[in-house]
Amino acid sequence: MTKGPILIDLEDDAPARPEAAPAVPDVIDTPNTAMQQAAILAAKKPSRLARWFWSVALSLVTFMAGLAAWDYVTGLLARSPILGGIATALMIALGVILLVIATRELAAFARLHKLDEVQAKAADAIANDDLGAAREVIAALNKLYDNREDTAWARADLAERQPDILDAPGLLGLAETTLLQPLDAQAQREVEAAARQVATVTAIVPLALADVFTALTANLRMIRRIADIYGGRSGVLGGWRLTRSVLTHLVATGAVAVGDDLIGSVAGGGVLSKVSRRFGEGVINGALTARVGVAAIEVCRPLPFHTVKRPSVTALVKRALTGLFGRS
Questions:
Q1: With 0-12 CB in 10 A as exposed, 13-18 as middle and 19+ as buried, what is 162?
Q2: pLDDT per residue as tens digits for the range 17-53
Q3: What is the pLDDT of residue 185?
Q4: Residue 219 CA: distances (Å) to CA of 32, 44, 188, 304, 319
Q5: Residue 308 in 3-state DSSP?
Q6: 110-131 burial, b if ≥16 CB within 10 A, otherwise e?
Q7: Rounded Cα distance, 20 and 196, in Å
Q8: Contact yes or no for 190/311 (Cβ under 8 A)
């Protein structure tokens, strides 16, 4: 039997104080792991072979459908000219509708491309302090919003004060505070509404997959509305392209993970997540929805955040969920 204290030699890289020791990793899976993985997978670009496969497959299906419709109409014309004429008229009407839809989709892609172009030019003008480029950005903004009645006063105020600003960051900062701040407020309200809806359904509705379906539809609708607010109204294919851009931005910035620091600061979320799993999932899914919303604002906003502060995810979630679950 050993008497006295036992001395244990520590390794050289051991911390000198207990508070300096690394934190013990949390191995408990968070409820939104599936949503995080879905965002990561959706943000990945398909391989070139996969793109070729789907392009050829879609072309083949379209060719076969068109050939079958042609054979049907010509056969019907041979049997009955009247019925064949009706079928021909219906096919022409369908073709015109498809042409209109394709035109609208191309216009949606053009609007989204315009937003990207203006944002990139504004970032370059700020970085290089290029007053000429900044004035071109202001002209592009006026053209983008010239048919928006809700921006008429802001555009007039910007045009009146623009000659007094002789540096690019100041001019674009003026555009942010006069023209884009009201649009930022509208976009943030959309984010708060979506986060509140997702959190409520997740916490209250016990049906399986109801929270996943609600989160998916609410996030897609939120992204489309944010694009509408900033002038990038999108169609079906444009909406998918915009969603991919938002998810890519989330993954690139590392904002797809939701940590306990955010959960614990929202409506007692840290306690709720231990008392009720559904409430904890509601807070987490609402927080992730808010992060998707902030990423959508950054992608769709025609000017990068420079003078105006970037929206705080924590503040958005607090406003969205205050009073929803109560205070612990």
A1: middle
A2: 544 545 444 433 444 444 555 555 555 666 778 778 8
A3: 92
A4: 14, 18, 13, 22, 18
A5: coil
A6: ebbebbeebbebbeebbeeebb
A7: 38
A8: no
